[in-house]
Amino acid sequence: MISEQLREQVYSCIKCGLCMNTCPVYRQLYFEGASPRGKVQLIKKILEGELEISAYFSSLLHTCLLCETCTVNCPSGVDLNRLMKAARAEVVRKLGLPLEKRALYSLLSRNRLLPFFMFWGRTLETPLRSLILKEGRAGTIPATRLPRLNSRPLLDQYPQIVSPAGPRVGRVLYFVGCATNYLFENVGRAVITTLNSMGIEVIIPRAQVCCGFPAGQAGMRKIALRNIRQNLELFDPGDADAVVVDCATCGTALKKEYANILEEMGENAEAARRLGQKVQDISEYLSKLDPAKYLKPVRGRVTYHDPCHLLRSQGIKEPPRNLLKSIPDMEFVEMAGADVCCGGGGAFQFDHPDVAAGITKNKVQAIMETGAHFVATGCPGCRLQIHGSLGDESIKVVHPVELLALAIS
Ligand code: SF4
Ligand code: SF4
Question: What is the CATH number assigned to the segment(s) 4-95?
């Protein structure tokens, strides 16, 4: 059930429509049901019993990137983000989810099954790619532009404690996340190398599981709850300086979604709130360590794309830019519309490839106009979407910390 506190939100909507022009989905589709205002009004009618939850209502609710642009632009303070997620959970409770999605989200919550599947995925990667991916694409992304799976999960590549060679000046817990663990091992290596080079000890709890955000966002809160409980047990920060995260989405989950979901499910959210206060995106943590004194010149031009889950969900704008600007000889160029969603939106680009492609096209054009050699972004979902849509092989999509590690080596 949607909580009383959230129900009240629908009555704060004054139907001004200020959320519509900045909604990337509405700007592609131009119909009321796809707009944030339309969704709030539909949710209101469902709550008041004037409409029934239906497959069509579900499809409209999922025609949304959950980019939070509407939430931050609403003058009445309607928390559309929480409202739409809670409504999705209601839809799943009533209508369920398609089998393939249930299977995928259940897999993400099984810490024994997932590595097993990934092992066979790596072994059979080449034939599977051509067999499974419809018409050689995954949503908008051509199969040839998908990253290869890591040689081994990152969690198997390091001991639980990785200490700096020199004197220790700090200690963090590292939440690795599925994308770094299975797809982008270079990001994880860069996080650990950079932290160690600055005298920070890195503790990597081995039994950590998927943050649960994908399942929670799809409305499968019971599955998300399993992951939330396990991660809360493992990530008791104790005397660590911070719990660092290299993925914008995992960071949002740990910083605030855990507490929101537990609260809305009537569970005790105290431990989640305590954890949330200790979580820092890697860019936040590193930018406080005066990184410039560790860096050698790297020649090139870099631009930066703001992930929705860093900028709007966590309010992080300057730290990743400051890190990039601190690299000697690296020219930083701001792209037009850096804060606009890339069109990925997790499962969105699979479910709505045409809408996603229209949004991503603008992002690619803005990147090309900068003449940058690197596009940095702190979200693996944005990375997949941007890399998958860039036609230019000379532009590399990286995490900011990868460029930092390059400047340290
Ligand atoms: S900006 Fe806020 S108040 Fe205005 S229509 Fe959108 S949700 Fe309603
Ligand atoms: S979250 Fe983003 S895509 Fe969804 S309704 Fe709001 S602005 Fe539109």
Answer: 1.10.1060.10
